[in-house]
Amino acid sequence: MLNKGGVILNYKGHILRHELKYYINYQEYTYLKNRIKNILNLDENATEGIGYHIRSLYFDDIYNSALEEKLSGVLKRKKYRIRIYDELDKVIKLECKEKYGEYISKTSTNITREQFYDIIFERGINFLLEKEKQVANNFFIDTKTRLLKPAVITDYCREAYILDAGNVRITFDKNLKAGINSPDIFSPELITVSAMPQNMMILEIKYDGFLPKYIRQLLKISKHDRSAISKFVICRLLQFKLNPVSHSIFNNWTQSSYKSI
Questions:
Q1: How far apart are CA 62 and CA 143, in angstroms?
Q2: With bands split at pLDDT 50, 70 and 90, how would you rate the model's confidence at 260?
Q3: CA 215 vs CA 5, 41, 60, 130: distances in Å
Q4: I want to staple 77 with a disulfide (CB 3.0 to 4.6 A). Which of 69, 90, 148, 201 is the partner?
């Protein structure tokens, strides 16, 4: 594993990326955006020149291992999620995000809407074994051995800027909400609750081997306090606060709604 001279890191076939996270307020967002918008390119997926909507369903086991490992600072950990964009089923990704100390790795495979319901309704997930991507096989194994279940939905708007040098991606994640009553990311009856103060958002900086010095200067990274932020944890803790038995409620929803889809 190398991290000198802009060399891309690799661990067991996984490309590792740096990920820096910061809490910022709206005034800081406006200031930073104005500094980078004419130098970096706005993500092509942005709608109306602003951003795009992301909704993710995270999974955890009966011991809440993903939550506990994050809170305990376990250096090597992983969690699974199913993600959609702009509340559409055009692209549905089954993803695994892994953490290796200071670095992250993400692998994904596409699934259909019907396969999504097969997963959350436990109608059968053998189709995962037919996919070429290893993440599908790993999710199948972990679901069977660790009894993974839907845990919480995160919901937010992302404004992203990109730079080819260093494969830099700078995102402003706004209006973070937790989905608390259903694991169905397509449900029009999904109830979402604000998970952060209205004036606050999350700045994320991701890059491969290096972050150009002028980008560091533009963002004034040294003047901000880096935080171990997890939207999954924020929303999960809010969900527990609102309803301590939320995990079993998700299970009940799956059972009672089986015939309705």
A1: 11
A2: very low
A3: 17, 13, 36, 43
A4: 69
Give Cβ neighbours of residue 60 (< 8 Å, ≥ 6 apart). 66, 67, 79, 148, 149, 151, 236, 247
Chain CA centroid to CA 62, Å: 20
For 100, the token pair is 């290796």
Nearest to 81 by CA among 209, 210, 230, 238: 230
β-pair partners for 100: 76, 103
Q: Which residues are CB-neighbours of 245 under 8 A, at least 6 positions away?
A: none
Task: For 75-112, give one letter per residue: b (16+ CB within 10 A) or e.
Answer: eebbbbbbbbbeeeeeebbbbbbbbbeebbbbbbbebe
Q: What are the b/e assignments for 128-166, b being 16+ CB within 10 Å? A: beebeeebbeebbebbeeeebbbbbbbbbbbbbbebeeb
In this prediction the pTM is: 0.89
Please give the single-letter amino acid code of residue 169: R
Q: Give me the torsion for CA of 93, 96, 101, 104, rounded to 10°.
A: -20
Dihedral of alpha carbons 80, 82, 85, 86, sign: negative
**22, 225 contact by CB (below 8 A):** yes
Q: In the chain, which residue ranges form alpha helices assigned H by DSSP? A: 26-36, 65-72, 113-120, 134-146, 213-219, 231-242, 246-256
Crossing angle, helix 246-256 and helix 231-242, to 10 degrees? Answer: 90
- Rounded Cα gap, residues 61 and 68, in angstroms: 11
pLDDT, tens digit (0-9, with 9 covering 90-100), for 84-120? 999 999 999 999 999 988 889 999 999 999 999 999 9
